[in-house]
Amino acid sequence: MPKRGLMPLTTLLQRFTLCCALISGAALSAKDDRPNVIIILADDMGFSDIGAYGGEIETPALDKLAAGGMKFSRFYNSARCCPTRASLMTGLHPHQTGIGWMTNPPQSGKMDHGPEFPSYRGFLNRNSVTMAEVLRESGYATFLAGKWHLGMNAKDRWPLQRGFEKFYGNLPGASNFFTPTYPRGITYQNEQIAEPESTTDRRYYTTDAFTDYAMKFIGEEKEADDRPFFLYLAYTAPHWPLHAHQEEVQKYVGRYMEGWDKLRETRLQRQRELGLIDDEWELSERSFKAWDELDVAKQKDMDLRMANYAAMIDRLDQNIGRLVDYLKGTDQFDNTLILFMSDNGACQEGGRLGGKTDPFDLATWEATYGAGPGYGEVWANASNTPFRKFKHFTHEGGISTPLIAHWPEGITPREDWYGEPATLIDLAPTVYELARASYPQHYAGHEIHALSGVSLTESFTGQKIDRADPIFFEHEDNAALLDGKWKLVGSKVSVPGAVDASKWELYDLENDRTETRDLAARHPEKVARLAARWSEWAGEVGVYPKPASRNMPQPKK
User: Fold this and answer.
1) Is the bond into 553 cis (omega within 30 degrees of 0)?
2) What contacts 10, CB < 8 A, 6 or more positions away?
3) Pairing mode, if any, of strands 422-423 and 191-193?
4) How far is CA 80 from the centre of its chain?
5) Three-class SS state of 498
6) Please, what is the Cα angle at 242 between 241 and 247, to 5 degrees?
7) How far apart are CA 328 and CA 68, in angstroms?
8) pLDDT in tens, 12-25
9) Residue 158, pLDDT above cutoff 50
10) pLDDT in tens, 263-312
11) Which of 54, 189, 313, 371 is 20 to 30 A from residue 442's alpha carbon, by CA?
12) Residue 81 to residues 42, 240, 278, 498, 523: CA-CA distances in angstroms?
């Protein structure tokens, strides 16, 4: 990678001032005054689903955090659940962690892809360190409540073996929300729970339980050592199966009978009013058929599917509100940095019009695990308003996520949007700077990959991010590169041993973030230059040109 230039003097002074403030606070008190850090990750939630980003779903807790902190308009994930989690936890590109594709499913018998495929072994490798490992070494308490999905077929790959002191959640990617069972059940510390008990006055529900255990962990620490804490709260909502309490579902039944076409229009209008989306950017094309092409029975079916999805986000927001109230009640809110985001764009899995499970057959719907209780590509298209594509893809609809940052002692509330592009590999440098934590070159006898992201602390005061390199993406042979206003993106761009230049698209995101006008034919030299830079990066991090199947990628020629 090219070397960065000298850091601007203003940036040095800002960082020096921030560090002095933190150090002086620590000197005046016996208590460790470094900020608590909470990272909240939604699962398969679209760009426009919450109120602060244009949605109609009731999300007052998140909207209040957004109003009291800052909102990023261009924050990017890794297009899929476990690659995103790998980057989030390590500050590295997914391929560097061994999760360039996916983790192996539970009890699959496939321990890994073998040492000849280090970028695709399907679990978090030991040439990476987790945020929990680094922060624990620095004196933080470390907690995980929710979804792990970074390796489970051997216990040394579990959260407690990767830096977390306390863990309650599910090791694989998803589960039934009401009755999670083995091998997609609930684990507490290192033990499987056969029948998890409800933590509320309602029946057991994973979203509720994850929040309650998160608060339990925080409370136990405050009563004991009272160290600053790092909480990774990784919800499985609103990932399929779309299971929700009926108290929330019934709030939304009938609200979506106007259909996805109308919903996309109203969300886009709201986004423009909020200043999130430029008036000149066109709405991307509808992904499938028009709402009016459905008969009334199917419209009611689709309305109920979307009602379940909205109810999951509604309940997620309620739980975030409970966590905020708990932090306020225990006098920990003001010095806690809360970051909220989604792991990928909305999910199109399960069929264009949803899965085969009948949403009116409630008993079957709630008993089913999988994408059968899903809402389909058509609603996912609306969730990602105004962008193209979905989960898996590196077009804007696949990798764009809300990012809300809230920290009363460190972030002054701002109404405008922070528009500099940022991505997952920037979070670890940010947290380590605020925690005054040292990132190791070696850990537990292993050489550790260097970080390539940048700290976002300048963004907390509205300054530009000091980034020298483009931002790179690759997942399932979907690739992208962001360089200033330019985005190079393509699906199925690879051929054995090379890259098929005819598959690349080029967009000017300043004038067309919705990717409706491909400029590749007008700028072939720029495409060639950016494609060559992407290929260079791909070789550096271990991207294979052409995986033959999801279970066995072909080695690079």
Assistant:
1) no
2) 463
3) unpaired
4) 8
5) strand
6) 140
7) 14
8) 444 544 554 444 44
9) yes
10) 999 999 999 999 999 999 999 999 999 999 999 999 999 999 999 999 99
11) 189
12) 10, 12, 29, 27, 34
Name the DSSP letter for residue 8: P
Handedness of CA 294, 295, 298, 299 (dihedral sign): positive
Question: What distances in angstroms separate CA 442 from CA 160, 434, 542, one per listed residue?
Answer: 20, 21, 20
Least confident segment among 114-118, 317-321, 328-332: 114-118
Query: What is the torsional sign of CA 230, 405, 322, 47?
Result: negative
- Give dist(CA 443, CA 130) in Å, integer: 11
Q: What is the mean pLDDT of the chain?
A: 91
pLDDT at 116 (0 to 100): 65
Question: Interhelix angle for 376-383 vs 296-329, to 10°?
Answer: 50
Q: Please, are residues 266 and 356 in contact by the beta-carbon 8 Å criterion?
A: no
Strand 336-342 to strand 400-406: parallel, antiparallel, or no bridges (unpaired)? Answer: antiparallel
Within 9-159, strands assigned E span 36-42, 70-76, 141-147
Using H for helix, E for strand and C for coil, what is the string for 204-265?
A: CCHHHHHHHHHHHHHHHHHHCCCCCEEEEEECCCCCCCCCCCHHHHHHHCCCCCCHHHHHHH
CB atoms within 10 A of CB 53: 29
In this structure, which amino acid lies at residue 475?
Answer: H
556 sits in the region (left: phi over 0; alpha: psi -120 to 50; else beta) called: beta
Q: Which tokens in the block code for residue 472?
A: 């790179």
**85 vs 129, 343, 430, CA distance in Å?**
13, 7, 16
Q: How many CA atoms lie within 13 A of 16 on its CB side?
A: 7
Distance between CA atoms of residues 348 and 344, nearest Å: 11
Cβ atoms < 10 Å from Cβ of 176? 20
**Which of 311, 295, 296, 292 shows the shortest CA–CA distance to 362?**
311
Alpha carbon distance 284, 222 (integer Å) = 49
Where helices occur in 419-469 by DSSP H, the ranges are 427-435
Q: 526-552, pLDDT tens digit by residue?
A: 999 999 999 999 999 999 744 444 343
Active site (catalytic) residues: 81, 149
Beta bridge pairs of residue 479 = 474, 490
pLDDT tens profile 58-117: 999 999 999 999 999 999 999 999 999 999 999 999 999 999 989 877 766 555 655 567
| Residue 236 φ/ψ, nearest 5 degrees | -95, -10
Q: Which two tokens stand for residue 97?
A: 């962690």
Instruction: Tell me, yes or no, if the pTM score tops 0.90.
Output: yes
Per the document, the length of the chain is 557
Q: 386 preceded by cis ω (within 30°)?
A: yes
The one-letter amino acid at 197? E
